[in-house]
Specification:
homodimer; 343 residues; alpha/beta; Lyase, Ornithine Decarboxylase, Chain A, domain 1; 9-stranded mixed β-sheet; 8-stranded parallel β-sheet; 17 strands
């Protein structure tokens, strides 16, 4: 049986997913800069770069350090960093040897903190997700202010996170394209060229039009997850990562498995069918999740006590960040090297 | 500023919380066997044992191993274990030197897997949470079946998890008491003495009556969290653990802080006000949570960019399990030694 729960990585599926997104970006003429926060694994970053990715996207300085140590590509920290003196030292080290380092910025104040550091700024805009980022029309003013501080401004980026809702991906992709165009025009008007127009979530990536941006930053596409399945972004054959879990109880005629929120993550968007899905049993429903129990309503005969089932987490980024390693079909292990690197 | 997000542990509050639960259990004449899955930290286990805890509760063999290595008390794995040969070896090692080791069991099949191992079984019953466990009336049949296999049966346990709902804690505590009494009677009738009658969640613990059980197993009480606050189990002065988080953006007039679901956990029960609370600002609402962003609607003037705020996670067990260490007020660090020990 082995130790459960564990992250089971199917390399064949992973490779197909990587190939497909690389081909998609090539067809559209876009640079692919995949978000490595999903996998946190140098081996997978190398596979992405070998397929033509121009570099990596990361969420934190700590993730950038892990991939820099592994030698993988250049890096864009797609986050509105607010840096202190320690962070500044770390950014200096990340840029040693002239490696290109880009960081997000959504305010003049945050830009002032970054002054003098060997980074290119990318202005974050809000394309409808309403998280961080300035309004697209304000990108020109912010960019010229940053340039006045002596900073290099490479362009604009956005995360169309409102694509994570049923039937919203096309509208979110259209919002994203419109916002990037508006922001780039505002920057041009302010005398700054938006060489980089960066966008893309996994749900919206398939809907992106050629010419609407220069760079795509999807993350989850490498593995897929139950959210992507239920959004219709992928089908079952595209699920590369599952959580191997042991059936420990048949209480009340249901399956109780040993993968809980400490293995799967507690993510549950209101539109999901439950706390994940079960591979090979599409009709099963994970109706409750404790820290170490998944409660699963199962159609027909229950899998035997002690048997292993494969659970598809709702949000694979969360599940990966709870584990130390991936288990490959041949028993090999790859590290989740950037696990917990939240800063 | 330091590295954010981080787990900030207030020792004064922790000690008051530990003292109060120890006194509560003493007053009721109950053994206190706190659930160490919440803190995963030998230093805190030692503080609990120093205040009279009879031993620890853990969720997994791996957690038991961490606390055994630290020498802390004896252990009850309050989980319906299904063991394979490796697990059996680990249980043998855990019991070396005659240390008492109890494990949960809710089926004859799981009991058969445990046959010959140096463990006492505690029959799990369902007192209304409807997760694992047999019906209380079935405890006698299961216990006598396990005894027939040559197993030592110590008694019964339950987790009244339905106490995690507004205004349900008293009813859940009553359900728990009734179920334990019924199960103990069923065991007696089957010729097995239920020496152990173990119960208790943090919300129900305050409602437990003397004589309704022999042992209490609360976990979250050590730190408190936003769920306990919103359930009314605790007040703000009892919050010992917060996540120090940096304000990185004021986009759209809100606070964007750098503690997301990879620091706080994604837990969000339907009855909560948001994805956690903010210490010192009861009116703030965490309206959205991404992996590295908390979006907070803030009353009045926003805290400055770059300042640190303290976020109270919804479910502290999840937040602790995402971090490597606690940061103490004096800058000291305690390890989350059992982080990720899911098996």
């Amino acid at each position: 049986m082995g130790v459960t729960p564990y992250l089971r990585l199917d390399l064949d599926v992973l490779e197909r997913n990587l190939d497909a997104m690389a081909a998609h970006a090539r067809t559209l003429g876009l640079a692919l800069r995949p978000h490595a926060k999903t996998h946190k694994c140098p081996q997978i970053a190398d596979m992405q770069l070998a397929r033509g990715a121009v570099g990596l996207t990361v969420a934190t300085i700590g993730e950038a350090e892990v991939f820099a140590a592994a030698g993988a590509g250049d890096r864009f920290i797609a986050y509105p960093l607010w840096v202190d003196a320690d962070d500044a030292d770390r950014l200096h080290r990340l840029a040693e040897g002239g490696v290109r380092l880009r960081v997000g910025c959504d305010s003049a104040e945050a830009g002032a903190q970054l002054r003098g550091l060997p980074v290119e700024l990318v202005v974050e805009i809000d394309s409808g997700h309403h998280r961080s980022g300035v309004a697209p029309a304000a990108a020109g003013t912010l960019a010229s202010g940053l340039a006045d501080l002596g900073m290099a401004v490479a362009g604009v980026f956005t995360f169309p996170g409102h694509s994570y809702s049923p039937d919203e991906a096309s509208a979110a992709a259209a919002d994203e394209a419109g916002a990037l165009a508006l922001a780039a025009a505002a920057m041009t008007e302010s005398g700054i060229s938006a060489r980089v127009m960066s966008g893309g979530s996994t749900p919206s990536a398939a809907r992106v039009q050629a010419g609407s941006m220069t760079e795509l930053r999807p993350g989850v596409y490498v593995f897929g997850d139950a959210q992507q399945l239920e959004l219709g972004t992928i089908d079952w054959s595209q699920l590369a990562l599952t959580v191997g879990s042991r059936v420990v109880s048949h209480a009340r005629g249901r399956v109780i498995a040993d993968a809980g929120s400490k293995a799967l993550g507690a993510d549950r968007a209101p539109w999901t069918s439950g706390y994940g899905r079960v591979l090979d049993e599409p009709e099963a429903r994970i109706v409750a999740l404790s820290e170490h129990h998944a409660t699963i309503e199962w159609p027909g005969a229950l899998p035997a006590l002690g048997s292993t089932i494969r659970i598809v987490p709702n949000h694979v980024c969360s599940a990966v960040n709870l584990a130390e390693e991936y288990v490959l079909p041949d028993g090999g292990r790859w590290p989740v090297a950037a696990r917990g690197r939240n800063h």
